Amino acid sequence: MVTAPTSFRFELDNSLSEIARMSDWLRGILKDIDASEDATHAVSLSVVEAVTNVVSYAFAPETVHKILITMDVSQEELVVAIIDDGIAFDPLARPAAVPAVDLASAEIGGLGIALMREFSTRIGYARSDNLNRLEMAFTR
Amino acid sequence: MKLSTETLPGDVTKVILEGLLDIAGSQEIDLRFSVVAGANKAVVVDLSAVTFVASIGIRTLLTGAKAVHSRGGKLVLLNPSSAVEKVLKVTGVDTLMPIFHDADAAIQAVSR
Predict the structure, then answer these.
(1) Inter-residue contact B64 to B43 (CB < 8 Å)
(2) Do the chains contact at A106 and B62, CB–CB below 8 Å?
(3) CATH code for the structural domain at A7-139
């Protein structure tokens, strides 16, 4: 088991093709710290959803930006922050998606935020110094 | 991400997916899954070897289900792991693509 350091960080470009590299990094750490299977799934899913949103919607087309991921590990929990310099966007301010009643009217998309809310134990958003910071906590 | 198909009696098509249905996995199977969904009316998607589904993977499944449904057919999901099933239920898509844990029941559900 890894005892130190208890903080990790990772940077990726705002490209969907970077997300696989980020997922590998994340799964590697979760394995090293002996995170539970449930925690590994919850963190992997929630961070992928959050970063997919940032990459897809936060930046003007054809512009290159860095997205920073930090993970703080304590005895009880894992806290992941996703920090970007894209347009101000609070995903938590969006109304909850209304489940579709049938396939014909089902809208495809907008499911990621519901997953982040469900799989994290707490989630918060802050905007300061022109940076978005989305923080999610998970039981270890 | 692997995709293979089997034709079962009664003109039922079983789609077997294997791997991670994340961004990369979805990109790998999107086209082939669309082709299968666009050409069949009775589709059972076997998820037993899928270890991870993100919302983009649900998009792939839902797009296929819509294509099948629009031609009067039905697509159902078979044997997701508990983690994958939770993702499907949290997003509410289990009401649009019914989940089965029994292959015979899944086949019966899509058979006309």
Answers:
(1) yes
(2) yes
(3) 3.30.565.10
Domain B2-110 has CATH 3.90.1030.10: no
Closest chain A C-alpha to B35 CA, distance in angstroms: 18
A36 touches chain B (CB under 8 A): no
Compute the average pLDDT of residues A86-93: 90
Distance CA A133, CA A125 (A): 6
Domain boundaries defined on chain A:
7-139
Q: Which amino acid is at B47?
A: L
pLDDT of amino acid A105? 80
- Report pLDDT for A1: 54
Structural domain boundaries of chain B? 2-110
Query: Residues B22, A23: contact at Cβ < 8 Å?
Result: yes
Q: Rounded distance, CA B67 to CA B24, Å?
A: 22
Chain B residues in contact with A44 by the CB 8 A cut-off are 52
CB B92 within 8 Å of CB B106: no
